[in-house]
Design brief:
Layout: E1 17-23, E2 28-33, E3 42-48, H1 64-83, E4 86-93, H2 95-99, H3 103-114, E5 118-120, H4 123-137, E6 142-148, E7 153-159, E8 162-170, H5 174-183, H6 185-199, E9 208-212, H7 214-226, E10 238-239, H8 241-252, H9 256-260, H10 270-287, E11 291-294, H11 299-306, H12 310-313, H13 317-329, H14 335-344, H15 352-363, H16 376-386, H17 394-407, H18 424-442, H19 446-450, E12 452-456, E13 460-465, H20 475-487, E14 492-497
Parallel strand pairs: 1-4, 4-5, 6-9, 9-11, 13-14
Antiparallel strand pairs: 1-2, 2-3, 6-7, 7-8, 10-11, 12-13
Length: 499
C-alpha cells in the first residue's frame, strides 16, 4: 500500500495550498487546492493529454514522444504549483507507468526533472483512493465506486465513511478497450464481460454506483447537453441506470467521427468515448445498481482525504464547505450560530437531514451582501446552484439556493425547484424569510438576535424582545415580520417585550 499517512491539517491557514499531479495513462493533470481540509476547493486545474498508456509498444515500453509530453507537462505544472506557494506537491503515477517495462526508469527521469518523489500507485491503491475520493465528495455514500481511467477500471465497496474490503482493479481502461474495439467491437464487448464476470463476484452488487473518471464524466456531459437539466453540474448528478445504459449503448455503437459531433462530447474524449460507454454499459449490466451518481472527486481527492486526521474526516463535507465559505465571505461569520438558535423554534421536530440543510443555508445566507440590492437574490441563487460544493445532491442545491433567494427578499421561481419534494419549497421560503428578518432586526449582531425570539401560534407570529426599549418600530422590521407570517400562513403579527 502506498503511504499517505495523515499530516497536520492546516485548514485554517489560507496560504497552505496543496497540489497533486496525476500522471495517468491518458492525461497528466495538475490540481492546486486552496488548502488541506474536509472541503478543499480547487484553485487551479489543468491537464495535458499525453496518452502514455496508448504509447506502450510490443515490448512493453513507453513511447518516447509520450514520455516527452509528460515531462514537458510536469515541468510546467511543478513550476506553476511552486509559484502559487503550495505547501506540498504530490506526484501520483498509475497504470501506464506501473506496468511498463521502462516504467521504473521513467519514474527516475520524472523525479530528476521535478525534484520530487513519484508515488506509483498499485491497482488496489487506485481502487481505494478513488473510493476515498467519493467518500470525500458525498455524505456517507454506500454502494460501489467505479473509476475508469485510460489503463484500468477500479471498483470498490463503499460503507458510509469507510472503504469496504471488496475492491478490484481490472485492465479495462478506455485506451485498452479502444484498441480492442478497433479490431472487433463485439469481441471487445465479450472481453469486457469476461473480465467483469471473473473479477466482480467478490464485490457487492446493487445499491448506488458512484461514477469516477474523465471518460465516464464525459457521458454526464453528453446527457446534460441533451436535456435541459435545471442544475447543469456533474457532481451529484443522478441518473437512472436504464437511462444511462441506453445512452451508453447509443454511443459505443458509433464511430469516433460521429461521436465527435454529438453535443456535449469533450473534443479530447471523442476517440475513447465509445470504449468508456461500452465499459459503462457492461458494468451496469453486471452490478445492477439502483442509482447512478456522478462524482467530480476521485483519486487525487482521495489521496488528500487520507492525509486528514480522523476527526476532520468525520466532518460533513457540505457543512465544512459552507462554513469555510462563510468565514471568507460573510460580514459577521459568527452570526450564523445566532441564526441557528433564532430559527430553532420554527423547526421543532425536524430530522437530521433537514437540520443539516438549515445549517448549510444559514452559513451561506450572507454571500451576496456585496452585490447590488436589485440582483442579490438572483446572484445568490445562481452561485449556490453552480458552486463546487461537495456532499450535496442536486435537490439539496435547489433547496439551499431557494432559501438564500428568500433571505434576500423574494420567493424563488426556477426550474430547479421541480427537484424539491412536497413542502420543501415552502420550507425553504419560510427559512429564508426568517433569516431575512433576523438580519434586518439585529443588524447582524449576534447579541441582539440572542435577546429576541419568535413564537408562532394558530394565527399570529410574535417577535419577543427582552426589553421594552428594544421593541423595533422600524417599518422595515415590521415588513419582514409580515413576510414571515405570510410564509407561515398566519394572518397577524405582534412585537412585544418579554415579561
Amino acid at each position: 500500500m502506498v503511504d499517505s499517512a495523515p499530516r497536520p491539517n492546516r485548514a485554517s491557514d489560507e496560504d497552505a495550498h496543496v497540489a497533486v499531479v496525476d500522471l495517468g495513462s491518458n492525461s497528466v493533470r495538475l490540481v492546486v487546492y486552496d488548502r488541506l481540509s474536509r472541503a478543499s476547493f480547487p484553485r487551479f486545474n489543468e491537464k495535458s493529454l499525453c496518452r502514455l498508456g496508448a504509447s506502450i509498444d510490443a515490448e512493453g515500453n513507453l513511447g518516447e514522444e509520450a514520455m516527452d509530453c509528460v515531462v514537458r507537462a510536469l515541468e510546467r505544472f511543478v513550476s506553476i504549483a511552486r509559484a502559487m506557494d503550495t505547501d506540498t506537491i504530490d506526484l501520483l503515477a498509475t497504470e501506464a507507468i506501473r506496468k511498463a517495462s521502462n516504467g521504473e526508469a521513467f519514474r527516475e527521469r520524472l523525479e530528476q526533472v521535478s525534484g520530487l518523489p513519484v508515488k506509483i500507485l498499485g491497482g488496489d491503491d487506485e481502487a481505494r483512493l478513488a473510493a476515498q475520493g467519493v467518500i470525500a465528495g458525498f455524505h456517507r455514500p454506500s454502494g460501489l465506486a467505479g473509476d475508469l481511467g485510460g489503463g484500468s477500471l477500479e471498483i470498490a465497496e463503499l460503507r458510509g465513511d469507510r472503504v469496504g474490503p471488496a475492491r478490484v482493479s481490472m485492465p479495462l481502461g478506455a485506451l485498452l478497450i479502444t484498441e480492442r474495439m478497433a479490431d472487433d467491437p463485439k469481441a471487445a464487448r465479450r472481453h469486457v464481460d469476461e473480465q467483469l464476470r471473473n473479477s466482480l463476484p467478490g464485490v457487492v452488487a446493487g445499491g448506488d454506483f458512484h461514477v469516477v473518471g474523465g471518460g465516464w464524466r464525459a457521458l454526464a456531459k453528453v446527457h446534460l447537453a441533451a436535456h435541459d437539466h435545471p442544475v447543469p453540474v456533474i457532481h451529484g448528478l443522478e441518473l437512472d441506470p436504464g437511462e444511462l445504459r441506453d445512452l451508453a449503448k447509443s454511443l459505443w455503437s458509433m464511430d469516433a467521427d460521429k461521436i465527435a459531433d454529438v453535443p456535449g462530447v469533450p473534443g479530447r474524449r471523442a476517440s475513447t468515448l465509445a470504449a468508456a460507454a461500452l465499459v459503462m454499459d457492461r458494468v451496469i449490466k453486471h452490478t445492477q445498481p439502483g442509482r447512478i451518481l456522478f462524482s467530480a472527486l476521485g483519486v487525487r481527492e482521495g489521496w488528500l482525504y487520507e492525509q486528514l486526521s480522523e476527526e476532520v474526516r468525520a466532518l460533513d463535507p457540505l457543512l465544512a464547505g459552507c462554513d469555510q465559505l462563510a468565514v471568507e465571505s460573510a460580514r459577521v461569520p459568527e452570526f450564523a450560530e445566532a441564526l441557528e438558535r433564532w430559527t430553532d423554534r420554527l423547526f421543532v421536530g425536524e430530522g437530521g437531514v433537514e437540520r443539516r440543510l438549515r445549517h448549510a443555508a444559514i452559513a451561506l445566507s450572507d454571500i451576496a451582501w456585496r452585490e447590488a440590492r436589485d440582483v442579490q437574490a438572483r446572484q445568490a441563487f445562481e452561485r449556490i446552484l453552480h458552486f463546487p460544493f461537495t456532499g450535496v445532491t442536486h435537490a439539496e442545491r435547489a433547496f439551499l439556493a431557494a432559501t438564500v433567494h428568500a433571505r434576500y427578499g423574494a420567493r424563488a421561481d426556477h426550474p430547479a425547484l421541480a427537484l424539491l419534494g412536497d413542502g420543501e419549497a415552502d420550507r425553504a421560503h419560510v427559512l429564508g424569510t426568517a433569516i431575512l428578518l433576523g438580519y434586518r432586526f439585529s443588524g447582524s449582531v449576534p447579541e441582539i438576535l440572542d435577546r429576541a425570539s419568535l413564537d408562532v401560534d394558530a394565527d399570529t407570529v410574535t417577535l419577543r424582545v427582552e426589553e421594552a426599549t428594544s421593541v423595533p418600530d422600524s417599518e422595515a422590521v415590521q415588513g419582514r415580520l409580515s413576510l414571515l407570517a405570510k410564509a407561515l400562513g398566519r394572518d397577524k403579527t405582534a412585537v412585544v417585550a418579554r415579561d
